[in-house]
Design a protein that fits this description.
Largest sheet: 5 strands, mixed
Helix content: 40-55%
Distance between the termini: 90 Å
Structural class: alpha/beta
Shape: elongated
Strand content: 5-15%
Number of strands: 13
Length: 675
Amino acid sequence: MTESPRQRATVRERFDAFVQPTLNGLPNRRVVLVPLGVLLGLLIVLVGLGITGSSTGYLNQFVSTAPDDRAIVGSPQSIRSDEWFVQSTWAVSQEEQGLPVRNESFPGGMDATVQHDLPALDWSLVLRPHLWGFLFLPLDNAMALKWWLPGFSLIAAVYLFSVTMLPRRPVTSTFLALGFFFAPFFQWWYLTITLFPPAWALLLMSTVVWLVRGASRTGQITMVALTAYGAAAVGTTIYAPFIIAATWPALAFVLGFVFTRDSMPGASLRDRLWRLRWLAVAAVAAVAVLGVWLATRWETIESFTSTVYPGERLQPVGDSSLTDFHSLMAGVFSRGLEGQNGVPLGGNASEASTFLLPGLFLVVPFIWLIVRRLRAKNGVDWLAVALLGVGVLFAAYMFVPGWDALSHLLLLDRTTPGRLRMGFGILSLVMMVVVAARIDELKKFDRGRIVPIWVPIGATALAFGSTALVAAWLYSVGSPLVTIWTWVPVFLLVLACVAAFSIGRPLAGATAFLVASVFCGATVNPIYRGVYDLNETDLVAAMERIDRGGEATWVGIGETPIPTVALVESGLHSYNGFQSSPSDEMWEQIDPDGDVEYVWNRLANVSWSAGTGAPSPTNPAPDQIHMTFDSCDAFAQENVDLVLSESPLQQDCVQLVETVREGPSTYRIYEVLPN
């Protein structure tokens, strides 16, 4: 039975009443709170079930012959070692040790409040809400909150920004939020340091709109408080490349919005600036809190920034290659990244990942809107100008040399072309929303065809040409990415998205954007139950039984991650693990004269193999420190008590204590004997 025109009209009227904006043009309470409430409910369900997207299940193959019963859908990504090998492993270690401020796995310990996004019983935990679950939840549920809260914060921030600008379009805003969340870049780099900065940037934009347009006092206080809190929280991530990339589009939006005359009709520029006074006060408070956080752990931060790698790197302007351009614009080919390990777009799938960037091609309708406004003598659309300007700034940073001093002043030299893709992704999203808002405003006064036909044609042609350039390059280098035809439907969806936004059909455009993003990014990470914890294995049980009441010090030897992960997660003292910065005590024992400091003074994983003589550190990769272990050498005799090895250790100064069979692998525990 089909609906009659009268029934359809009634449904439309009810929807219009539901989304009716406030008098100052902001979304009403229902439009804001109902979708965010649904999102909160979903978060509670996922945390309650202990569901994550962790790739820690990668470890199962080394210690079990059975399928991983924690895996629900999908497969772990070995390339996501930043998650499964570093952050999750150290988080389990913190849980095992009782959430100390200083993790004692390495000799000399490691500050647990700065790097690796770790829970610790420190006042700064207030600024890390995704880690609060470790205070009162079982490990799997705490890891679920750690996994989902940053991502859901991003979804909420995108939705709030979009519906703030498009108060009658909650469905469009929902689709945009979900589409942005599933961007291949976020899925391949799914970490707090990649999710919180864009969430905060979008929250800042929303807050400025709410303040300028005169939201209710409760709304203003809430938005200002959240923005200030978010600024301090993002600051504690201390990863400048992503923070800077996210901040510049936000600053462009804020300046453009405030200086555009009709952002708040009837209010002068002075009035609009005055309405931001409490945001300025909150910013000072956020900076003060962040300053206290920095001051109370400055020694750790200074140690990290003084490393050989990554150190305090400054990027010269105009240093990007043609490959960098192709990688930036290759979003439609994202589905094939896993199979090709990102090659030739990057060194691996994560480094090759980017965004679908339909908003960048809306430069054509942006220019048309600017010119139309000037011809109508309505003043300059500074918002559109500012957004185009930051796009030009980003492009100049990548491809125009010779202005390093200015780049340094703008802090752009502290990011990299690969990390700047986040800035382009945010800019693309904001441009989509702003174009939709501007055309919606025009439709209030003209129900006919408003946008000239050349505008969508020009925008779509730009999108077509950009992808054609990337496809031609991929074909010329013989990449299978261009012959894996799954990119074609994504390409068509991006073209449809660009065309739809160009003609003022944002719901259709957002739908195409969502479908394309889900297709490209939704299957990157698995659906997993909790975290794979080696503390539940017979191996760690044997290690803890043999350990001398927590006083022994270990070395782990092997070709797989298991010796290192087992030692770190168990909380036993060892010389294995991914160090954020070197422990003075540990490296004083290994290299007392500092002869090879350039090798070990870095953010890197410390691993061992059997050898002869002194440890002899080497760097197989910039973030790897490999050493040799000789049980009869002075270092081992003075500092090492027990050894965990994947293979028999043929050395005179060790004695086999126990052999542990774990799935397909055999592990041997040795005691170091006097020489």
